[in-house]
Structures are given as structure tokens and as C-alpha cells.
Design brief:
By secondary structure, the chain is of the alpha/beta class. Helix content is about 40%, strand content about 15%. The relative contact order is 0.09.
């Protein structure tokens, strides 16, 4: 970290952050740790830069996190093994927070250096690869000998012209000397096209055409290199340059804690520090929270960017039209222990026909590798009781040392650190991402309403899709949502889940579902699944349906449940 940027505690949780550019411009921010946006204590030209304000304040918050981690709660744990695990997690959390703070500091310093002196003459107008808007970019008056730097007048990010021939778009300008050609998001295949990213495409089956890239990929040689967990946290956070566009949406969905306002923004910005959003360099838990938070941008350019990245990541993802019809379109998704059903309908035909016989039906295929690995793990745990006990240790570490001791802000980073290779968390993350992508694609169609139906983790996909779709004003509505044996925590804030639903969300649950009773509870550190005990709290739009009398196992729902 350079000497021209610093953060410190004024009193209690009241923070102050200060940055000085290499040409003498300064910006000082103050506020409580929980404040979504800081107050400008002193500024000038730098205070008008959204990316700088967001990154400087995020630096102050992560710096505070690193300095406020205490061992007291961990030392109070009586069990020596759990105490040792908790202390280990605390040390790791501190290292991760320090690395994130360093990343925010470097980005904030870079923006300050280039944003304090720009020329109003001969602006370049083009699409920004940071905030995905078309706006003016002003040239920064940098010392002689440096490659040019522009500043986006929309988000404040450093940019420079894309080097592709005849391209008028702007690429993100990295810090320091640029050693490789800089291409815009279109020519990096981070987005299928700036113009069409805000557009709709008609019927759901036309999504593949929408996702087709319009420009040649000039960045194929630059492969994303896998890094360790701390490396992910410390990677240059280019995604932070777009933080003003998405920070406040992160963590807002009910199943992820229902954060809102200041807490959601704080959490979202903290999780943006692991590489570009489109490149997927956020780590597993970080990627889930960020991509899910983009639900607030469904149907827009940012949502399209994430959709393209996701489809490239999950080769098994596709949406198949099972049949045409005149009724409200129905979308179904399989999950844990039904993913091996290769039959075209995946076991849904009789259940769907009983209520939506005249509807067109789509099936979402997703996460084949993750669901296969999860099936192997689940079968092993259910077949060997000792396996549940052996697995319990890792879950206890992640939840007690992560979520309990460190709270909502650092907990997800630790879960990513400890369980990045655990089949359950990998599959759950895949379901979350799939749900947001589905929500984004549904938002782009010309249908007025849909019915969503899912089982197990497929129900999780549909719940996330419903929440994401509910954030789009004027988007398609949901007639009903049917969640069978949902692999979702039973307790939550469900306003977002029902916001876009005209009828109701029905949660079908069974006390005989051993998978959700035992395996889910273990891997989620004691949390009950909605598919086992029902959603809590219920409401007029969130209705629990106890199907214990007809569902005797986790794979019994489709063949035995009658939709409400």
C-alpha cells in the first residue's frame, strides 16, 4: 500500500479514509462502518468520481475488518479441536481481509492518480467496459512517456481505446505499464454485444441467438489462471471499477440473509475484490453472492455479461423446449438425485400435465458435473452413518468459525476458502448462478408470465430465478412457483421471493426426506431445509404444503405430489 492512502478509526466504528493523488489532489471520506455510502469530509474534483469513492470506502471497510478480528470468541471454545480450527480460520480471515484491503487501496490510488487532471477537449465517446454504458471518456494529463489513460464520465473508471481495428469502444485501463493489448468487453468475449445486451429477444428458446458473440475474440490467448484462495482475494479487483453499478444489490436476496441497504452494499463491495466479474475470478462463494446480486440488473447489460460468462463456464447449461402450447409457459428444473434421469422430460410430464396440460414447457439443464459429484457424496453419506460424522468437522469449522465468529461479511469468504472443493457447496453455488442467469433470460422474453417448478437444488434454481426476476420493474410476472423438496434454508426473509409472483410460492416438504433431514443439515451446519420443515415465516403468498404422507424419500416428489 502506498503512503498516500490511509484509513483509521476516529471513534468506535466511525472511520476516516484519505487518498492523495500523485499530483496533489485529495479526497477524505468519513462514516460508520455500516454506512453504505460515506460522507465526503473534504474533496474537490476527486469526490465526483463514483469508482474512486466506492473503492476508497471499501478499502476503509476491509481495513477495519482486518483490524477488528478478535480471538476472544475462539479462545472461549471449550473443545480444543474446534478452538484450534476456529483460530486457524480467524488467522486466515485476517489475511484475506488484509489482502482485499490492499487490492482496494491500489485501485483507489490508481483512480485518484488519473482522475484529478483530465482534459475537457476532444473527448472520446464509446461503450465503457467497466460500467457498460455509452458515454464520454476524458483524457488524463499524465506525465510524458506514459501510455494514455482516459476517465469514464459515467463510472469514473480508467479506460483507453480498444486496440481492435475500427473499434470505438473503450477497454478497462489497468494500472502501470500495459504489457498486453487492451481490448473492450466485446472483443474479450465478456459480452455478446453492447447494443443488444439491453434488448429482449422474444421467446425463451431464442436465448442461444441472443448469447451469440457479434465480434471476434481477440483475447483468446489470455487464459484465466487458477489461483489459491488468498490469491483470489488479493487479485487486482478490476470489477471494483463497476462497483457503483452493483454493490448495493449484493446479498439482498432472502435466501442469502436478506441483507438490505447499508449491509447489502458493504457485503457486496467486500466480495467484489477477486478479479473481473465477467471472468468469474471472484472465488466460489464470492462469485455466488456477486452474480446473484446482479439480479437487480436482470435484463440489462450487466446481466448479459454475467450470462455470457456463466454459459461459457457451465457447458451443460441449456434450455430445451419440451413442447409448445397456448397456456402460460412452464419452466422446470431437476436437482439432486433426479439429475441422472436422462428421459427427455426428467420425470415432470405427468405432474405438469395434471395442472398445466395446455402450456408450453421448458426444461433447464444445468450443472451436470456438480450434480453428479454431489450424488456420489450424498449416496456415500447416507449409506455410511459414520460418513456424516466425519464430514461434520468441516461444516462446523465453516459455520462456527466463519459465519458465527466473523459474521456475514467475512463468513462467505471463509466458506469459499475451506469448502471450495466440497461437492455440496460447489453444486449449491452452481444452482444459485443458474437461477440468476435463468431470471435474466426470462426477463428478456416477451411473455407476460411464467410458472416455475423445481425439485431439490432445481427448486433452489427456481427460487433464485424468482427473486432475480422480481427485481425487474415491468418484467414478466410469475403466475405461481412450485418448489418440491427445496434445498434452501427454512428460515429467511422471503419478500423478494414473492415480489414478482401474482399467485403464490408453494413449498412442498416432507418429514420423510432423509437427504434433507440428515445430509442438508450436516453440510449446512445444523440448518433445516425448507424442503424438510417448510418455509418460515409463511405468508399469504408463501404457502407450505406438507406432503409427508405421500413422499417417503427425496426422489419421491415428482411421482407422488399433486400441484396446488
Amino acid at each position: 500500500m502506498t503512503a498516500s492512502i490511509n484509513a483509521f478509526i476516529v471513534e468506535g466504528t466511525h472511520l476516516k479514509a484519505h487518498v492523495e493523488s500523485d499530483q496533489g489532489a485529495t479526497l477524505t471520506l468519513v462514516g460508520e462502518f455500516t454506512d453504505a455510502e460515506p460522507t465526503v469530509d473534504s474533496g474537490g474534483v476527486l469526490e465526483k468520481n463514483p469508482a474512486l469513492v466506492s473503492n476508497l470506502w471499501s478499502y476503509a471497510k476491509t481495513w477495519y475488518e482486518a483490524h477488528s478480528i478478535s480471538q476472544d470468541d475462539a479462545l472461549a471454545i471449550q473443545d480444543k479441536d474446534e478452538q484450534k480450527a476456529a483460530l486457524k480460520e480467524l488467522a486466515k480471515a485476517k489475511k484475506i481481509a488484509q489482502a482485499r484491503a490492499e487490492s482496494y487501496a491500489k485501485v483507489a490510488q490508481w483512480i485518484a492518480d488519473v482522475a484529478d487532471d483530465v482534459s475537457p477537449y476532444q473527448p472520446k465517446n464509446g461503450w465503457c467496459s467497466s460500467c457498460y454504458t455509452k458515454t464520454d471518456h476524458l483524457k488524463s494529463n499524465r506525465p510524458a512517456g506514459q501510455l494514455p489513460v482516459y476517465v469514464c464520465q459515467g463510472c469514473g473508471s480508467p479506460t483507453l481505446p480498444c486496440v481492435a481495428a475500427k473499434c470505438e469502444n473503450m477497454a478497462v485501463r489497468e494500472r502501470g505499464a500495459v504489457q498486453i493489448p487492451q481490448y473492450c468487453s466485446e472483443h474479450r468475449h465478456e459480452i455478446s454485444g453492447f447494443e443488444k445486451a439491453n434488448q429482449n429477444f422474444g421467446k425463451l428458446e431464442e436465448y442461444e441467438e441472443f448469447l451469440k458473440f457479434e465480434k471476434k475474440d481477440f483475447n483468446k490467448g489470455a487464459k484465466l489462471v487458477g489461483v489459491g484462495v488468498v490469491g483470489v482475494a488479493a487479485a487486482a479487483p478490476l470489477a471494483l471499477l463497476a462497483a457503483p453499478a452493483i454493490g448495493g444489490a449484493i446479498g439482498s436476496l432472502g435466501m442469502f440473509g436478506g441483507l438490505s441497504g447499508a449491509a447489502a452494499t458493504s457485503h457486496g463491495l467486500a466480495l467484489l475484490g477477486g478479479g473481473t466479474l465477467a471472468a468469474g475470478g471472484l472465488g466460489m462463494a464470492g462469485g455466488t453472492m456477486v452474480v446473484t446480486g446482479v439480479g437487480a440488473a436482470v435484463g440489462g447489460t450487466l446481466g448479459a455479461t454475467v450470462a455470457n460468462a456463466y454459459v461459457s463456464e457451465d457447458k451443460s447449461f441449456r434450455i430445451e423446449l419440451l413442447r409448445s402450447g397456448s397456456g402460460v409457459p412452464v419452466v422446470v428444473a431437476n436437482g439432486f438425485l433426479t439429475q441422472s434421469d436422462d428421459e427427455r422430460w426428467g420425470g415432470w410430464k405427468a405432474l405438469v400435465d395434471s395442472k398445466y396440460a395446455d402450456s408450453p414447457v421448458y426444461r433447464v439443464r444445468w450443472g451436470s458435473k456438480e450434480l453428479k459429484d454431489l450424488g456420489i457424496m450424498g449416496a456415500g453419506l447416507m449409506g455410511k452413518p459414520a460418513g456424516v460424522g466425519a464430514f461434520k468437522g468441516a461444516a462446523a469449522v465453516a459455520n462456527k468459525a466463519g459465519a458465527k465468529l466473523l459474521g456475514r461479511t467475512l463468513g462467505p469468504a471463509l466458506i469459499a476458502a475451506d469448502l471450495a472443493k466440497n461437492p455440496w457447496h460447489v453444486a449449491k453455488t452452481r444452482a444459485d448462478k443458474t437461477g440468476v442467469i435463468l431470471g435474466d433470460l426470462l426477463a428478456r422474453t416477451d411473455e407476460e408470465s411464467y410458472v416455475l417448478i423445481g425439485h431439490s437444488l432445481g427448486a433452489r434454481v427456481m427460487a433464485v430465478a424468482a427473486e432475480a426476476l422480481g427485481t425487474k420493474p415491468g418484467g414478466p410476472r410469475l403466475q405461481d412457483v412450485h418448489l418440491l423438496g427445496a434445498a434452501i434454508g427454512a428460515k429467511g426473509q422471503w419478500e423478494g421471493l414473492v415480489a414478482g409472483v401474482d399467485g403464490a410460492v408453494y413449498g412442498y416438504h416432507s418429514q420423510n426426506d432423509a437427504v434433507l433431514k440428515h445430509v442438508y443439515t450436516v453440510v449446512q451446519g445444523g440448518q433445516k431445509a425448507a424442503g424438510y420443515s417448510g418455509f418460515s415465516p409463511e405468508s399469504t403468498k408463501l404457502i407450505n404444503v406438507d406432503v409427508s404422507d405421500v413422499v417417503k424419500s427425496h426422489s419421491d416428489y415428482q411421482g407422488n405430489v399433486t400441484l396446488s
